[in-house]
Amino acid sequence: MTTILRTVADLRTEVRAWKAQGKTVGVVPTMGALHDGHLSLARRARAECDRVIVTIFVNPMQFNNPEDLKKYPRTEEADAALLRSVGVELIFAPAPEEVYPEGFSTTVSVAGVSEPLEGKMRPGHFDGVATVVTKLFGMTMADRGYFGQKDWQQLQVVQKLVRDLNLPITIVGCETIREPDGLAMSSRNVRLTDAGRRIAPVFYAAITAAAEDIRAGQSDRMAIREAAVTMRDAGFERVEYIELRDAETLLPSHDPTRPRRMLAAAWLDGVRLIDNIPV
Ligand SMILES: Nc1ncnc2c1ncn2[C@@H]1O[C@H](COP(=O)(O)OP(=O)(O)OP(=O)(O)O)[C@@H](O)[C@H]1O
Ligand SMILES: CC(C)(CO)[C@@H](O)C(=O)[O-]
Ligand code: BAL
After folding, report:
1. Whole-model pTM?
2. Tens digit of pLDDT for each residue in 226-238?
3. Fold of the domain spanning 189-278
4. Where in the chain is the domain with CATH 3.30.1300.10?
5. Pocket of ligand 1, candidates 27, 35, 38: which has the most ligand atoms within 8 Å of its Cβ, to mutate?
6. Residue whose CA is closest, atom 2 of ligand 3?
7. Alpha-carbon distance 216 to 107, whole Å?
8. What's the complex ipTM?
9. pLDDT score for 256
10. For residues 17 and 141, what is the distance between their CA atoms, to the nearest angstrom?
11. Ligand 3 centre from 145 Cα, in Å?
12. Edge to edge, what strands does the sheet with 3-5 contain?
């Protein structure tokens, strides 16, 4: 059975009872509109923890664009059915007032890793993510937290905040789940037109080709420029960034002995898509 709870008090009562029985608890934070990417996180949590909580909360604090917040897909009934099929015990779906009651005034801000790339393009976004994730960890008292590599920078921000604040939770980064044509699954993909959906796989193909060229010895700058041209020629309105970075700090990296990551963001059909791959 999958229970839906809406208040922190009810959630705490349930989790305290589990903990008293010595059960381990996994949490999968989401904003809903669930797809196979989310479900892969829930399945991994299911395999590794005695009890699984999926949180569904479209967090206003992390949206720097009010239109994006308004248009964010909300499909709670379908989400609950999917989570039931995975065997998730509890859905925590609070109202904004429950998470941010009158007078709420704390911000968690992770300096450094939050600043480039998504942080630069979406000012305030990672403060919103770091604050809500810290709250969700406190509310759920989970032992393990599951996050997708699709949001690579977010995963690094969360790992850093857990280390810096000594939070008693282990973060598990899960592989990006893709459509058969390579497009990374994302809740925002439903906003693409049919024509846009046909163009979208060029994103992953272009950054994959660039990563291969860099590994084969081509200059970073040249390989990245070619990827951007390929995407624009295919019909992407705008390539916001394609960057090769240190996989953990996200600082520019020209040291091939350290793990590196290519991260990118681009607009198609007025929808902002992101993706990343190891190099
Ligand atoms: N394709 C995917 N593969 C693996 N994990 C994913 C995938 N898509 C999302 N996730 C992870 O699921 C969690 C919740 O993400 P979120 O609810 O924002 O979904 P989303 O599809 O990324 O939506 P958005 O359109 O906001 O990017 C995050 O940890 C995210 O990294
Ligand atoms: C982690 C998260 C649920 C926090 O709101 C969100 O940023 C997301 O869905 O990736
Ligand atoms: N998937 C990361 C959350 C966001 O785009 O707001």
Report:
1. 0.97
2. 999 999 999 999 9
3. Pantoate--beta-alanine Ligase; Chain: A,domain 2 (3.30.1300)
4. 189-278
5. 38
6. 151
7. 44
8. 0.97
9. 76
10. 12
11. 16
12. 3-5, 90-92, 51-56, 25-30, 144-148, 170-174
